[in-house]
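U., I forgot to send this yesterday:
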Amino acid sequence: MGVLDFLTWWKRETLGTALFTWRKGEFVGTDAYGNRYFQEKNPRARRRRRWVLYRGEVEGSKVPAEWHAWLHHTSDQVPSDSASHRDWEKPHVANLTGTPAAYQPPGAVTKGSRRDPTTGDYEPWHPN
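Result:
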């Protein structure tokens, strides 16, 4: 890891975050994607800070729903790997916007296609 890795937040945690975590952070757990979760050591604080150190690229959509709820104080219960999931729940998928795997609807310009012709029920607006 070079100096640039500590100074740029979009690659990894900054030097300040690493030092803050080392001094005041209490490790809470890890999710299935390798992200590590922390909270402030001070149990007397009115509302203890919570944060995540991402594994790999810093991307907010990499946080699963149960950990998102814990981070935002929606739930005080630390998620566990053995938590039961309902059959309608889908597995977490990272945000694919801006990647080659992003969703592109039929007729998208980026796909090189053309839009379907109008069906006749469309009237363009013309200013007076």
